């Protein structure tokens, strides 16, 4: 097994942070109010092969990530993706998906609950679920990715005071401590400075500390966090999203467009004929498109919707409609519907594809809708 741990520090005075470093141990302690943000990445061989699954991915978000170099910007809750191999056997494919969701999440997701998503199937639930894995911390954001060759698991730890890593038989550990070099960074692209420590029994080099530099070119220019609220309107609520003023600065970059992505609970209806927000084009609407069915007749979890704006705007108003619920004789209160907030971002053209491909960080998949864009 390989473990790559990246410790991100907002304090560039790294010499004051190191408690111990040698061939078998690495310890660092943060300064007060300058805690670390850490990504643990584990790479292992699959314990079992699934011949009808090309890729299987779980992205779970318990809390909004702090500002850092790590990409965990997917929708809050549970997000499951399954990509079949070409010419797959449908029954066997869904049996394999069911086996994985039971093993990893201890839940069963019926095939009808997934929505078709280009060449894959997608499931979303606003309630996050821990991955069943004794190496991971409970209640933190994580990303699990399977293919026939390897399994990669990433987890995000925030507000960490100190870390202590030891050499362990059978595990090749690469621990990095990095900070942002402000002289060569801007709001979109980051230049990282730091060093890596190798804790590996097979490493014969006495020098296991290596100075390292990375330039991170962001594929998507994330904005300051937008704020959303529900404007009550009877059975036709409006999702109102305020766009930060800083959007203007990013939008001036050549080839940039504004995007708005939202997962819509199956108790709500998005009407593509009447309710596309002003100034936008509907790019994606995956899920059940029947506007008349009641909630209890919809097998899918809901819809995923993506809008594209050519011009800068200060807010987005998305009108949704309520589906009829299953009547209950003893129901005394109205049904409460929970929905994930929308993600607002800017997508810009770039000619630095080689830099993106060479980056050790997951810049090409920083948000789940990245699959809809080239490169």
From TrEMBL:
Membrane protein topology class: Single-pass membrane protein; Single-pass type III membrane protein
Pathway, per record: Glycolipid biosynthesis; glycosylphosphatidylinositol-anchor biosynthesis
GO annotation, cellular component aspect: endoplasmic reticulum membrane; glycosylphosphatidylinositol-mannosyltransferase I complex
Signal peptide: none
Subcellular localization, as worded in the UniProt entry: Endoplasmic reticulum membrane
Biological process per Gene Ontology, one example term: GPI anchor biosynthetic process
InterPro entries: Pbn1, PIG-X/PBN1
Keywords: Endoplasmic reticulum, Glycoprotein, GPI-anchor biosynthesis, Membrane, Transmembrane, Transmembrane helix
Family: Belongs to the PIGX family.
Function: Required for proper folding and/or the stability of a subset of proteins in the endoplasmic reticulum. Component of glycosylphosphatidylinositol-mannosyltransferase 1 which transfers the first of the 4 mannoses in the GPI-anchor precursors during GPI-anchor biosynthesis. Probably acts by stabilizing the mannosyltransferase GPI14.
Protein name stated in the entry: Protein PBN1
């Amino acid at each position: 097994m390989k473990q790559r741990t990246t410790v991100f520090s907002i304090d560039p005075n790294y010499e004051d942070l190191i408690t111990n470093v040698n061939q078998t141990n690495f310890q660092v302690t943060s300064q007060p109010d300058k805690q670390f943000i850490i990504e643990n990445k584990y790479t292992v061989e699959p314990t079992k092969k699934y011949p009808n699954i090309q890729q299987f991915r779980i992205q779970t978000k318990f809390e909004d990530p702090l500002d850092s170099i790590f990409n965990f910007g997917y929708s809050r809750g549970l997000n499951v993706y399954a990509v079949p191999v070409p010419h797959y056997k449908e029954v066997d494919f869904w049996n394999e998906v069911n086996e994985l969701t039971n093993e990893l999440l201890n839940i069963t997701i019926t095939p009808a609950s997934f929505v078709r998503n280009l060449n894959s199937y997608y499931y979303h639930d606003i309630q996050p679920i821990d991955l069943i894995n004794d190496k991971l911390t409970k209640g933190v954001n994580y990303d699990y990715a399977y293919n026939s060759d390897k399994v990669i698991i990433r987890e995000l730890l925030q507000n960490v005071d100190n870390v202590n890593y030891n050499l362990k038989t059978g595990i090749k550990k690469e621990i990095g401590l990095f900070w942002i070099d402000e002289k060569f960074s801007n709001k979109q692209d980051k230049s990282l400075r730091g060093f890596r420590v190798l804790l590996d029994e097979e490493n014969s080099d006495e020098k296991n500390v290596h100075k390292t530099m990375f330039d991170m070119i962001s594929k998507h220019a994330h904005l300051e966090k937008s704020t959303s609220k529900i404007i009550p309107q009877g059975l036709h609520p409006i999702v109102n999203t305020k766009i930060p003023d800083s959007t203007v600065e990013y939008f001036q970059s050549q080839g940039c467009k504004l995007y708005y992505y939202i997962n819509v609970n199956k108790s709500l209806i998005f009407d593509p004929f009447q309710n596309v927000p002003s100034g936008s084009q509907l790019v994606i609407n995956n899920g059940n498109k029947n506007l008349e069915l009641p909630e209890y007749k919809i097998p899918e979890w809901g819809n995923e919707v993506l809008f594209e704006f050519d011009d800068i705007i200060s807010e987005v108003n998305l009108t949704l409609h309520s589906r009829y619920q299953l009547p209950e004789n003893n129901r005394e209160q109205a049904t409460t519907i929970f929905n994930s907030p929308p993600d607002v971002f800017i997508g810009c053209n770039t000619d630095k594809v080689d830099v993106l491909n060479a980056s050790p960080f997951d810049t090409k998949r920083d948000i789940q809708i990245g699959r809809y864009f080239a490169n």
